[in-house]
Amino acid sequence: MLTLCYQREVPEAGCDEAGRGCLAGPVFAAAVILPPDFADPALNDSKQMTRRQRDRMREVIEREAVAWAVAAVDAERIDRINILNASMEGMTQAVERLSVRPGLLLIDGNRFRTTLDIPYRCVVKGDATYADIAAASVLAKTHRDEFMERIAAEYPGYGWERNMGYPTREHRMAVARLGLTPYHRLSFNRSSYEPELFGAEA
Description:
Blueprint (H helix, E strand, L loop, with lengths): L11 E7 L8 E7 L17 H14 L2 E7 L1 H7 L1 H14 L7 E5 L11 E4 L7 H24 L5 H4 L5 H10 L7 H4 L13
Parallel strand pairs: 1-4, 4-5
Antiparallel strand pairs: 1-2, 2-3
């Protein structure tokens, strides 16, 4: 069972992102403020949940949260400022969109920078420790998967409906065969045409 939050003195927003290691698509970030009596044993780090569990939990979170918000930073912006900065920018944007201003941000990971004048604390593996970060991980992941499935129809052949833009063999082979799309991160794809990445099939 996850710990609900880091502290209870002020409203606390758990923050996390999804899609940081992808070759294509935005990085999505979410911020969630859970009610003080929230308890759902099915909530976990989104990476440890099945698709069905995440989808069900998304409905619960969006219905019961005090406030929640999701933001996306696109591939062009990722290439311009790098993925770490884009992830932090996305979390900042998600917090800015909350209908309730938090008094503390609980960030998954070990680094964070923001233009917000809100105190924050970074927690390594926070999505497996605190419920509010886990809730943010679920929203970021499900909203991003939904987006990738939508653009998979726009650019068929890359398998985005299955790999969600991650660097699977299927995706890398498709890049070699079909080229890059406007959704691809150029800074992540410079080596995608190197034959050694594809083996004998290249």
